[in-house]
Amino acid sequence: MRVVSRQSSSNLELLAIYEVSKILGSSLDLQQTLREVLRVLSYHLQMRRGRVYLLGDDNVLRLVAVNGFSNEQITATAISEGEGISDRILKTGMPVVIPNLAEEPLFRNVAGGREDLDEQIASLVGVPIKAAGSVVGVLTIDRISDEGPTTHFGSDVRFLSMVANLIGQTVRLHRTVAEERRYMMRETFRVQKELRQPEPIADIVGGSPSMMEVLAQVHRVAPFKSTVLIRGESGTGKELIARAIHNLSQRKDGPFIRVNCAALPESLLESELFGHEKGAFTGAQKDHKGRFELASGGTLFLDEIGDISSNFQAKLLRVLQEQEFERIGGTKTIRTDVRMVCATNANLEEAVGQGKFRADLYFRINVISIMLPPLRERPGDIATLARHFVTKFSKDNGLNIKLADDAVGVLDRCPWPGNVRELENCVERAATQCTNGVIKAVDLSCSMNLCNSSILFQYRTTGTPVGGLAPAAAVTPTGPRPAAPNGHNGGAPPFSAPPFSVQSSPLPAPAASPNGKPWPACASACAASPTCGSGTSSVTVPLAPLPEPEPADGAEADADADALSDVPDNGSLRERLLWAMDRTGWVQAKAARLLGMTTRQVSYALRKYNIEIKRF
């Protein structure tokens, strides 16, 4: 009988192992799979109250599967460090057998479900769940008996250890798959984020990579209240970006107030921003709300903030930091909920270093900085913008104007120091001059020697901006070094504006313009003619000629002739200029006659060499 019973028990265990292996490989739901395993153990081997504990990422042992427990009860059950039998199995990694749970001092019934120990004798068998040599959980079962503890715990430990090994391998596989899935999801999200194009913004045209980055940054910062500083050259569209930030934010239903700080004097700017009380000054006949007060709940855009005075910079600090202020002539503190968006084309870091801009104000406004690229760094957007402006002009004037390909080619090669604003003006000017409703290359200003950029380029020194426009490109003098006024230059004036070499692309041989006349030289290198372009070859573009010096007569001529004999022969132009200015008491007209130059030439040379004029 014992042999038959032993064989029957072995067959049941073998059948149970087979059923457990099938269950563990049938589903990716780990909790449901473990509950099914415990159900098989209870059905085939009468192992009651089976429990599976697993170690979480926080090193806390938690109950994940048990017979008769709901998911909420399982999730809420955790075993603290140093508590209970399961924790001892986890630490030692050895099986534990407790013949009578009622007599075990470590048993605390943490997981519940054993309130009937006074009526029945319950024994516990627990084994560690191992994976890759480390303990990752605990498997426990109860043996219930009315007569007393059973004696066949050895076979139970051996059988449960095999089941625990299968569970350990399944847990390891599930965790590996889960980690790989999380990694793939992170990588997929990252790639999608990189490839996802930002949504277009109204009135902002452009698809170049630099503008796509700007638009993506606008979408990222718009939902927050943080102060934004928009930087870029004049004409790049800073106000459009500021309005886009407002329209994409949660304040889009609030007011969008614009203030050009450079257009108002300091006294008026303070009244416009903070407001004033009735009688605060002459002409204050009633209370006036300031822009900070009017923009509450919305966005306040301060354009050209780099041009405000030092005194007014200090007055902005409190309202930017505390969001509160007082009107001029008032004592009541007014709180405002406004988002600040500032813009400037000035180099604020340089201004801070020179003491022209307060460092504390700089750090308050430079929370999030958005740099707008100049149009010359967006070559792919020039044609798109030009066609957009043509469409806009046609719609505003009830016309149907097109842009020819040759005109687009000319526009693409222009450096555009005035950026988008200059491009819009150029297209609108050409649209008024075109015939047959088509803008061609001959309709552009540069083709008629009327390019505004050409004029601006003549007065820009290397690296110095003109009126907020882009600084000059890298240029190098190509003419001979000016000779001293000693008669060896064939009677030519001792100083003349040297021609500049503009880097341009390889060009074909010069050809005649469509009207048969020679192409005009465009100092902006806009490539309207075959003599212009941008790239690698060197094209010499001289500055506008200056008038010849006017001869002096009378006593001044005799005095200048006497002084001319003392002019240093071997000195540089700067040295001779300093000598002449010092000799004539820093009067430019006299120094010009002494050097045989015009007053304009002397003034140009003083600016070129950064010579500070002394005042007496």
Architecture blueprint of SSEs:
Blueprint: H1 2-24, H2 30-45, E1 48-55, E2 61-66, H3 71-76, E3 78-79, H4 84-92, E4 96-98, E5 121-131, E6 134-145, H5 153-195, H6 209-221, E7 228-231, H7 238-248, E8 256-260, H8 266-274, E9 275-276, E10 288-289, H9 291-294, E11 299-303, H10 310-322, E12 324-326, E13 333-335, E14 339-344, H11 348-353, H12 359-365, E15 368-371, H13 379-397, E16 402-403, H14 405-412, H15 419-433, E17 438-439, H16 452-458, E18 476-477, E19 500-504, E20 537-541, H17 554-564, H18 573-583, H19 588-595, H20 599-608
Parallel strand pairs: 7-14, 7-15, 8-11, 11-14, 16-17
Antiparallel strand pairs: 1-2, 1-6, 2-3, 4-5, 5-6, 9-10, 12-13, 18-19, 19-20
Helix pairs in contact: 1-2, 1-5, 6-7, 10-12, 13-14, 13-15, 17-19, 18-19, 19-20
Strand order of the largest sheet: 3-2-1-6-5-4
Averaged pLDDT: 76
The major sheet is characterized as: 6 strands, antiparallel
CATH topology of the domain at 2-178: Beta-Lactamase
Low-confidence residue ranges: 472-521, 527-531, 533-554
Region (Disordered): 473-514, 545-568
Function: Required for activation of most nif operons, which are directly involved in nitrogen fixation.
Biased composition (Acidic residues): 550-563
Protein name: Nif-specific regulatory protein
